[in-house]
Amino acid sequence: MPGVRIRGHGTTLYNCLYRGDDEMLVNAHLWAVNAYGAPLWHLRRADPGPGSLFDAYTASPGEVWAGAQPWEG
Fold this sequence. Notes:
- The longest helix has 15 residues, at 53-67.
- This protein has one helix at 53-67; strands at residues 7-8, 15-20, 23-28, 40-44, 69-70.
- The chain contains 1 helix and 5 strands; from the N terminus they run ββββαβ.
- Helix content is 21%, strand content 29%.
- Strands 2-3-4 form a 3-stranded antiparallel beta sheet, covered by helices on one side. Strands 1-5 form a two-stranded antiparallel ribbon.
- A hairpin with a 2-residue loop joins strand 2 (15-20) and strand 3.
- The chain is of the alpha+beta class.
């Protein structure tokens, strides 16, 4: 699909993030709780800039993405 990129990494992540533009779903993983039973937060970018929760979640996987290897399917 045009514009879709996939990369692989070996980093342990403790949240699943699903982002579209200025909205994000964060599935917070909890010990002994399946993902479908864990909290799901719906974040919206209200005030861009340092210190915002949205931008903190945006920056974290960006660092993982930068070190990941492109997948050639």
